Amino acid sequence: MAAVQDGPMELDAEKEAKPEILSDGTSNLSGNTASGTLSSSPLTAAPAGGAPKMEDQQTLIAVLQFLKRNKLSESVEILRREAGLGEHQEGSQATDGSGGGKGDGDGGDANSLLSRVSITSAAAPQSMPVKKDQPDVSVVLSAYSQQGDPPLYQVYYSGLKNFIESVLDCHRAELSQLFYPLFVHMYLELVYNNHETEAKAFFDKFSGDQECYYQDDLHILCGLTKKEHLKGNEVLLDFRTSRFVLHISRDSYQLLKRHLQERHNNQIWNIIQEHLYIDIFDGMPRSKSQIDSMSGSLAGEAKREVNKAKVFYGLLKEPEIEVPLDDEDDEAENEEGKPKKKKTKKDSLGSKSKKQDPNAPQQNRIPLPELKDSDKLDKIMYMKESTKRIRLGPENLPSICFYTFLNAFQGLTAVDFTDDSSLLAGGFADSTVRVWSVTPKKLRKVKSAGELNVIEKESDDVLERIMDEKTASESKILHGHSGPVYGVSFSPDRNYLLSSSEDGTVRLWSLQTFTCLVGYKGHNYPVWDTHFSPFGYYFVSGGHDRVARLWATDHYQPLRIFAGHLADVTCTRFHPNSNYVATGSTDRTVRLWDVLNANCVRILTGHKGPIHSLAFSPNGKFLASGSTDGRVLLWDIGHGLMIGELKGHTDTIYALKFSRDGEILASGSMDNTVRLWDSMKAFDEVETDDFTATTGHIHLPDNSQELLLGMYHSKSTPVTHLHFTRRNLLLAAGAYNSQ
Amino acid sequence: MEERRFAEVPRESIKLMAESSGVELSEEVAALLAEDVCYRLREATQNSSQFMRHAKRRKLSVEDLNRALRWSNTETICGYGAQDALPFRPLKEGELFFVEDREINLVELALATNIPKGCAETMVRVHVSYLDGKGNLEPQGTVPTAVQSLSEDLLKYYQQITRAILGEDPHLMKVALLDLQSNSKIAALLPYFVYVISGVKSVSHDLDQLNRLLHMVKSLVQNPYLYLGSYVRSLVSSVMYCILEPLAASINPLNDHWTLRDYAALLLSHIFWTHGDLVSGLYHQILLSLQKVLSDPVRPLCSHYGAVVGLHALGWKAVERVLYPHLPAYWANLQAVLDDYSVSNAQVKADGHKVYGAILVAVERLLKMKALSLTLAAEGSGAGLPGTTTGAVGFRENSPGLSPPPEPLSEPPLGIASHLQAGGAGCPWEEWTPVSLPAMYCELYSFFGDSLAVRFSTGPPLGGATPPGPCQPLEGRKEPASSAPNLENTRKMPQLTASMNISPRRDGSPRMEPQPPSLAATVPGRSLARSSSSSSSSSVSRSRSSSSRPGRSTSQSRDIFPKARFPLPQAGPPAFSFIIGGRQMGRRCQGRRFQTSFTPTPPLTTHPPRAYAHKLPVIGRVSKPVRRWTCSHYSLHLPL
């Protein structure tokens, strides 16, 4: 019961913690987006003052505890006096251990419970970016100071195990979820209290019972045998700082509670109270497969409240552009290609005839750059191309064009295509970025300033004249990074290229001059991925420091920081409407962030390995994610539900892409294959009745084989990137691997 | 107890290492250190694996570990960055293991002359593949070749070949065509060649070029290493263009576009019978387009001619199916042309005669084949047939019915004619109800009268087609034996070889009986007849004469034919190192009397007006099975 109560509290705490990170100082965006930008988000200012104070207090309490434990009573006195902390405050903290031990957490315990909660949650965001947070670590670890009888741990655990195995089938699957978090916490408790041999014995006895998808974590765990090791280990820090979330039906929970109370199994009950968050729901217990499909992440499943926020997943209204009426065939074919465009053609003078998508965010929710003339031209090109688009489907699979990087001995680490498929960029482990022209048009630099002065600026072909013909070549190399380039992304207008690197920077390159324009510093740790907004100007990056950052190209500081992942942010993608950002992480969750206020609006769990690829469907409703376990998961963003699982790949999926109309999902993997999936069918078969929508208990049909439409093999070329041209030809890229 | 799955550093090692740097460690400290070292190593390894994953590799590299160390503020390890695995070896004397680390003489390295060349530049290559509807990868070498970038050599080859074929030098052209039909490495160029060939439309004024392009088609089709795939369609449409279009070149009556159409028609049938299976519905499409042309009175006569020849080349079934039902309607138009004796109409009338001749030849064969098929059907697989012919017999048996199109390549190596015949037998006209032979004969007779070379005793009684049937095959069978000396072989495909001695006697040869021709023989015979008919305005009679072998034909026609024919062999150089497709005049194929016409090498120059007559052999040749072609070289001798 207590767990249920403290849910909202924790939420509050999180909310308070966030704005501190969010503040982005002065951000008057110049240029096209001169008007109000993201900086003035309503949430930033108000609570910012409160949070640090509270955190300070927590830290002080932690220090006091530390001092006390080490019998430094004089220092304790001094500190207490200086900080002006009342005895009672600390007292409540101190009673933690015994209070928890009393067993049932409903009554007078609420107070201590609250403080405990606030400690953990406050510590979480703070400990993320930096490592200097020793006091917090000890706070966190201090939760283990209480101890039962070490040899009895095995008895406790096997007692619970016997109980769970003896309950009815329907409850067993649900209660089995407890095994893993309890196991880890008990083990860590033993380690923390220096019961090395008991810990080893405990681990050896029960590690085999855990679900196979926790193997990676167990590996790390089994190496930990000393208290000292705990301090530096970030994974375990994650485990501590976040409460493991379980979804359990009310019946099962009652069953468990009754059992634990009958047996007076306080040790386990304490752990459940302190380190687990049990999200109780009414209704049928879930089946084993339902549970398995959602579990696997580092911190358990997502709390249901987290995914309740409304997400405006609809697409923004297309800007109205007058399409030149010269070509008739364009018009004729328009019905199937882009009906919307045709409409805009008619109401060329901007009447508001087109309905706003009800699920779309307001047009100016996120300020977007104004369209330049060249952008409009490009849009028109896009419309023309899209009329010639091939309608894909199960009967009509795309042809594939594979761009193989040869002689890439230095190691190809990232690839991107421009939207119009005219340029190809590769990031390499030798810190270089190379840009190729895929079309016969060569890459040319702009002339030097001196030469530019000579050019007559009024001439019609001035854009042509400014290019230096002497520099024409098929590819250009961009030097500047000092570490492997892990992510590259073209701007939609093809004027810029972003690259993120191990050196902790994101760089913006000009494709006119082929020089570096800006180095965005902020991550301080390897930046694993970066992605331009579909409208340009903004971009997102994510890295080893566990946060994703939102940047604007003309700001050297991030506009937003998306903090919350418990491990590295491995991949980042912008939603097609630019209002949201999806991030995939090593903590095996996908999160969706609101660009407006940096809130996490979706936490999607179910992957069993680090996530390395993400793709939004073109209509913005769905998200696909691929991980190291070779599975692709499909998500309904609106409901926050998993709606499909595509099994087939045998290795990490590094590339995902929907076809332009969203009928086909292509996935590319380390196993040298590109697979095509029938995404339409996958989306159609989803049961989105109210029940599943509210409970989130989705029953996934195992139909990967039916959804698999085709497969392309390469001989020895892992697929690094996939792209659909505007006409729906599939482009893939990867480096030939001679070994 | 489960075994821990990682290596541990023994405390002895720690002590050793400490000693080597001059520190004495107690047992306890060493144990603690050992454990901690193990843990830190594992941690570093785990951290480094994420660098590996992000570099999209499967192999953990030293560099990855160094990065992990650097990010955890530890000094990196230098000297292990080599690509190759470093040898790890034991020392015999003690229990010592070490990584071999040879000393490198830097001076030597610096002054070395064999400076390693920089590794090849990083580049991007494109490869295309596509799935068929069922999600299976299409076989390699089909479309992907289109996008393959051509190597320098291929490009050069392509230029040379096209230049040679389209150029002036006949010798060069011959070599080029030969190579084109035997080169096994030109798959990548196929789309380019197909593209060149599709250029027929732009050279419709130039018969010579058209001819060259057609020969190019033939060479490509013959090349056993090429998988034409869907390019067949493109090739066919180019060939059809030559058959059916009122080419610009045909405005000038001196231009012999008739021969071109004949050649193209045979080429068409060849493509179809050898590659028709690549494109579904091809046969039907061809027939439809031919029919469309035929039924369009606005089209010029030369187009109609093309349609008729095309149908003829596709086999007697096609004729029966399309031409025959259409004949009554068409006849009226043709008659009008032929009956107009005005001067202004002279040219048109001449064309009309051509068409007339072509139709005649086609229906004659139709009659023959039909009679034969009936006979055979009645007979069953005649026991008397030589074993080798059984295949053909089988087809014939089926022919009246709705047998599926036979797989042409799997056939025993029959002659050209047999191919066609097989094709004729296989026309898949399911819904069609055949007209009985007598009725057909009567109707045709009403059009052509005595011009019809095929006779069935008398018109009306002929109804019982059976009587002639049985005797014909028998006779036919005997005859080959008798004529063996002249002909290459009694069995199938004598017609392919040029038998040198074609004596006039053949014409006058005793077998005057109207034999149901062996199918093999018929086709070439017909083509010959057709082409010969084109040589003069009296095509009708000539064609009739060609078919006159059946003794019943009018003597007049017979006379003409020999005359037309004989000069050719004589004029031609007697030395036939190359084989010319036999013009089997023997429509009585039974007899397999095949006459080879000997083409003089520069025939055009010598007898320009008769040029096409010389080409007859070409037609015969075209339908030869691929295998034979590959080893023959005569094709290049065609007078163009």
TrEMBL record, chain A:
Biased composition (Acidic residues): 323-334
GO biological process per UniProt: transcription initiation at RNA polymerase II promoter
Keyword Nucleotide-binding: no
Region (Disordered): 1-52, 83-111, 323-371
Protein name: Transcription initiation factor TFIID subunit 5
Source species: Sinocyclocheilus rhinocerous
Annotated gene: taf5
Keywords assigned by UniProt, alphabetized: Nucleus, Repeat, Transcription, Transcription regulation, WD repeat
Residue span, TFIID subunit TAF5 NTD2 domain: 148-276
Transmembrane segments annotated in the record for this chain: none
Biased segments, Basic and acidic residues type: 12-21, 346-357
From TrEMBL, chain B:
Organism superkingdom: Eukaryota
GO molecular function: protein heterodimerization activity; RNA polymerase II general transcription initiation factor activity; transcription coactivator activity
BP GO terms, sorted: RNA polymerase II preinitiation complex assembly
Keywords: Methylation, Nucleus, Phosphoprotein, Transcription, Transcription regulation
Residue stretches making up the TATA box binding protein associated factor (TAF) histone-like fold domain: 7-70
Positions with biased composition (Low complexity): 526-558
Signal peptide interval: none
Subcellular localization, as worded in the UniProt entry: Nucleus
Broad class of the protein's primary localization: nucleus
Xref: InterPro entries: Histone-fold (IPR009072), TAF6 (IPR037796), TAF6_C (IPR011442), TAF6_C_sf (IPR046344), TAF_TATA-bd_Histone-like_dom (IPR004823)
Keyword presence, Aminoacyl-tRNA synthetase: no
Keyword field contains Transcription: yes
Region (Disordered): 459-567
Cellular compartments per GO CC: SAGA complex; SLIK (SAGA-like) complex; transcription factor TFIID complex
SUBUNIT field: The PCAF complex is composed of a number of TBP-associated factors (TAFS), such as TAF5, TAF5L, TAF6, TAF6L, TAF9, TAF10 and TAF12, PCAF, and also PCAF-associated factors (PAFs), such as TADA2L/ADA2, TADA3L/ADA3 and SPT3. Component of the STAGA transcription coactivator-HAT complex, at least composed of SUPT3H, GCN5L2, TAF5L, TAF6L, SUPT7L, TADA3L, TAD1L, TAF10, TAF12, TRRAP and TAF9.
Function: Functions as a component of the PCAF complex. The PCAF complex is capable of efficiently acetylating histones in a nucleosomal context. The PCAF complex could be considered as the human version of the yeast SAGA complex. With TAF5L, acts as an epigenetic regulator essential for somatic reprogramming. Regulates target genes through H3K9ac deposition and MYC recruitment which trigger MYC regulatory network to orchestrate gene expression programs to control embryonic stem cell state. Functions with MYC to activate target gene expression through RNA polymerase II pause release.
Family, similarity comment: Belongs to the TAF6 family.
Protein name in the entry: TAF6-like RNA polymerase II p300/CBP-associated factor-associated factor 65 kDa subunit 6L
